[in-house]
């Protein structure tokens, strides 16, 4: 977990969130669903500061890990939360004007 350690040392929650999210994806692709679930949950926590992109993807990886582990109800809940995060992002972006950063787009930047 050297990459995660380095990401945490960077002090940037965005870097930490993206690193954890990609590690979750790697665990998922390798079939290590418990590790994918744990790492996706860590990424979601980091996403509170990193922004919606990390949150949504991590929720999708979490849902995939839960579904592969046979926990369909929990997976559907994670997928529902991902859908709600996408809806929030669409509302935020609908208010965006050229030349302005969308609200919250600088979260996680150190």
Question: Overview of this structure, please?
Answer:
It is a single chain. The chain is flat. Helix 2 packs antiparallel against helix 3, helix 2 runs parallel beside helix 4 and helix 3 runs antiparallel to helix 4. The protein has one domain: Serine Threonine Protein Phosphatase 5, Tetratricopeptide repeat, CATH 1.25.40. It has 110 residues and is an all-alpha fold. The chain is 77% helix and 0% strand. This is MalT-like TPR region domain-containing protein.
Summarize the structure.
It comes from Nocardia terrae. The chain has helices spanning 2-10, 13-30, 33-50, 52-68, 72-94.
Helix and strand composition category: mainly alpha
Q: What is the overall shape?
A: flat
Uncertain runs: 105-110
How much helical structure, as a percent, in the residues? over 70%
- What portion of the residues fall into strands of 2 or more residues? under 5%
CATH class categorisation: Mainly Alpha
Strand tally is: 0
Gap between N and C termini, in Å? Answer: 22 Å
Major sheet attributes? none
Summed up, the helix count is 5
The pLDDT mean sits at 78
The CATH architecture: Alpha Horseshoe
Radius of gyration: 14 Å
């Amino acid at each position: 977990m050297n990459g995660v350690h380095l990401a945490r040392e960077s002090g940037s929650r965005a870097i930490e969130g993206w690193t954890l999210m990609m590690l979750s994806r790697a665990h998922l692709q390798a079939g290590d669903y418990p590790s994918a679930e744990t790492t996706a949950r860590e990424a979601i926590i980091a996403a509170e500061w990193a922004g919606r992109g990390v949150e949504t993807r991590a929720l999708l990886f979490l849902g995939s890990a839960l579904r592969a582990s046979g926990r369909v109800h929990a997976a559907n809940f994670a997928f529902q939360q991902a859908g709600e995060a996408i809806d929030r992002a669409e509302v935020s972006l609908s208010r965006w004007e050229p030349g302005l950063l969308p609200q919250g787009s600088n979260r996680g930047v150190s």
